[in-house]
Amino acid sequence: MPFSSNDLPAIVKQLEVMATFDQVKDLFRQRQVVFSAPNWETFVGERLYPAVEKGTITADHLGNLLAQAEEHGSQHVMLYRAPKSRAVASVNDAKVRQGIKHSGFGDILDAPRVLDGADQPTWIEARVELTPNAQPKALVVKQVATREHLERLDEKREGTRMRVEYDIQKRRAINLVKLHVDGLVEVRIQTHQRPNYFHEAGQLLLQLNHLLPVGEIKPAPITTARNNLFEKRRSLASSVRYTNSTLKNSRGNTIVAAAGAGEDGDLFSDKGMTSSLDQFVAHEGYCDASNVWFKVGQKPNGDPKWVHVLLSGKDNEFALTSQCSMKEYEYVLSELRAHNR
């Protein structure tokens, strides 16, 4: 990814916000560069910039790390499918260059931009990802926008009126579209306060009509995965757990079940709850929405590490509630795809 030294200030600023200190230290560890520092400011001044000056850490290293950090997690993901033949034709360097030119996006393939934010949503990067044997694997196109977040400060009652004071905070947001050569299309939209994710996904796809076969892209439901994960919950208990689920049946009846221990709970550790839900499912019941936790590895202390996924909303939608690594995101997506067959 061709970043330059001119991009470093913006990259470093966004790394502090979007990446964990551990992720940055992992990069330095891989490059065999000293990374010890009491805080971020000292790390940047005494470790990061000296390493860049020596060439042991480059703008590309840091830019790639930022991409991994900001592109995964805290997102609502809408899944679509394009014909495989059209997808293969689209994930082609020459075709991508032609599409970017017709779209008027600038040189975002060879010279991606790093923006703190943008007054108008701006496409800042395009890249063709390759397999280990250098074959095209996917096309990724990334957009940056600025969102307003309302932070409630105070409220005052004056007679029959209530005055509420908010602090308006501007935040950088990343949206991303990824077309795989097998036809899968991911539209990842950063979570925000006043969403219409299905509409927003459609708008993002329309803006890429010179790059993607938009007219042939259809929603790819994951309702089968929702039901398969629920039905196989006993055999998957060591790697998947639930903190709540909403079940419905053909008569329109609904059951909402929630674990009592919050995020650390397990809905199906209660035999009474399990028995009740089993009976409901046995009589034409199905899983409509769930809070699911996928085990993605271990923490440094040996405890299991979980990624929280919301299986709700549109039939082709799932959401990740917090930032995660690229490896963790890809694991969740692969599990959803595997259980959707």
Rg over CA atoms, rounded to whole Å, is: 22 Å
Q: What is the terminal separation in angstroms?
A: 35 Å
Q: Please, what is the average pLDDT?
A: 90
Order of helices and strands: HHHHEHHEEEEHEHEEHEEEH
Number of strands: 11
Shape: globular
Class by alpha and beta content: alpha+beta
Which sheet architecture does the biggest sheet show? 11 strands, antiparallel
What multimeric state do the chains show? single chain
**In percent, how much strand structure appears in the residues?**
25-35%
Number of helices: 10
**Amount of helix:** 25-40%
Taking pLDDT < 50 over at least 5 consecutive residues as the criterion, the unreliable ranges are none
Strand-helix topology:
Elements: H1 8-18, H2 21-30, H3 40-54, H4 59-70, E1 73-81, H5 84-90, H6 93-103, E2 122-130, E3 136-158, E4 161-180, E5 184-190, H7 197-207, E6 218-219, H8 223-231, E7 240-249, E8 254-258, H9 271-282, E9 285-298, E10 304-311, E11 317-323, H10 326-339
Antiparallel strand pairs: 1-5, 1-6, 1-11, 2-3, 3-4, 4-5, 7-8, 7-9, 9-10, 10-11
Describe this structure in words.
With 341 residues, the chain is α+β, with helices and mostly antiparallel strands. The protein is built from 10 helices and 11 strands. Strands 1, 2, 3, 4, 5, 6, 7, 8, 9, 10 and 11 form an 11-stranded antiparallel β-sheet that branches. The chain is globular. The model has no long low-confidence stretch (mean pLDDT 90).
